[in-house]
Write a structure and sequence with these properties.
Two copies of one chain form a homodimer. Chain A is mainly alpha-helical. The first copy, chain A, has one domain (30-148): Arc Repressor Mutant, subunit A (Orthogonal Bundle), CATH 1.10.10. Chain A has helices spanning 14-28, 31-34, 38-49, 55-61, 66-78, 100-120, 126-148; strands at 53-54, 82-87, 90-98. A three-stranded antiparallel β-sheet of chain A has the order 1-3-2. In chain A, strand 2 (82-87) and strand 3 form a beta hairpin. Chain A starts with 13 loop residues before the first helix and ends with a helix. The first copy, chain A, binds a DNA duplex (23 and 23 nucleotides) through residues 23, 26, 37, 39, 54-56, 64-71, 84, 87, 90-94.
Amino acid sequence: MDVKKDGPKPDPGFVSLLTQLYKALNRRTGEDLLGMRFKPYMTLGYIRDHPGTTQHELESALFMDANSVVLILNELEAAQFSVRRRDPHDRRRHIVEITASGRRALERADKARESLEDEVLRALSPEERKTVRGLLERVLESMYSEARV
Amino acid sequence: MDVKKDGPKPDPGFVSLLTQLYKALNRRTGEDLLGMRFKPYMTLGYIRDHPGTTQHELESALFMDANSVVLILNELEAAQFSVRRRDPHDRRRHIVEITASGRRALERADKARESLEDEVLRALSPEERKTVRGLLERVLESMYSEARV
DNA sequence: TATTGTTATACTCTATAACTATA
DNA sequence: TATAGTTATAGAGTATAACAATA
């Protein structure tokens, strides 16, 4: 029972949908909102949640290349939000850790991010938000496991 | 009743989730797959589905800036997939239309896109795919209406 | 004076390869 | 020789402002 309101509804496709949402979101996640740019924010969140992580792990976890990781960590260190120190067991590795002030900045940014999400997802009920997040997480996880093959 | 499998499961947030999915997807949508780059493909799809659209409409519908629209249309015209012609009622405007060969190229690309999506969404059942698409469409629509305010 | 589209410019992001230091 | 990280470079994406034509 397809209700056709305005002609044959074209199927934009999941990928296009995601791309448009990404762009729409990017427009409203300025540095002024989070207190830092979005990618460093996302990276710092991962660092906090995965103590003792390495740059290599950041690459694969956040789908970034080595170069971007370096640049973002430079930025985070310049703001004194994170530090790199050599892994004593393998001196090629850097262990990345969040600082106390990084933790505070991240908590502030998290609050801003939450209110942004409330605004962005206002069309959805709490249960629907949970649903969409759960589904997207599963999609992402399947992409990780595929990448590992 | 939170099942804690591996410590306090951090909430990555909808925005981060979307960003990672976007990046993961971008890595596998090369030109060789669709026969054209992804953004022109997405744009051409909109042009087909909205006959008589203008560049200004493309901007707001696809969350692009005027500059990007010009560049993408240049690319599409070079490939003879679309044409711009002056609107006789307002000679400042360009009316953008898909060509016959653009339509054929788009149909081929659509097939490739569908098989890509099958692969990307393989973690989800058909009903779940419908659900996630429907929810994301609603989020996007609410962002449009907000942008209009 | 405002709008549509174009051009120019700069800045970010991404991808790649060359380099270093360690293993 | 292989790996972790860094640096350098080029390409694509995005944002901004100046501009021409038209309203």
